Amino acid sequence: MADYSERDVLRELFPETARELFGDGHQAAAPTLGLYEVADGRRALVNGGRLAELEPLEPKGNKAAHCDLCHSTRSRNEVGIYRARSGERLYLYLTLCLVTEHCQRRAGKQGLEQLAERVLSAHSVSDEG
Ligand SMILES: [Zn+2]
C-alpha cells in the first residue's frame, strides 16, 4: 500500500480545498512522489514540491503504444496521450497507461522518479502542434 494519503496529495495540490476539507491542524505533508488523477481527466505528476499537470489529448491512430512510465507495450485503448506543459510554448507528450495504479506498480519508485525528472526538467521539447 502507498504510504502517502489522498489527504497529503490534496494538501499539496489544492491547499485551500484541503484546508476546507480537513481543517488546518496538520503538519506539512511529507515529500510526495506519484502520478495522481485530478479533475477533468487530467493527471498531476508530483515529485517533492514540484508539480506538472498532464492534460489528456484525443488519441489518434490505433497502433500499439509504448507507455512512458512502465515501458510496457500496450494496445491503444489501454493508454492515454497526455501533454505536459514544461514552458511558455513547450510541451512534452507522454503515453501513459489508463490504469495508473498498475502502471505505477510496474514502474516502481525509480520509474516514477525518472519520469518526474524528464517532465519536470524538460526544456528542449518543441510544440508539435
Ligand atoms: Zn504504464
TrEMBL record:
It comes from the Bacteria. This is Uncharacterized protein. It comes from Deinococcus ruber.
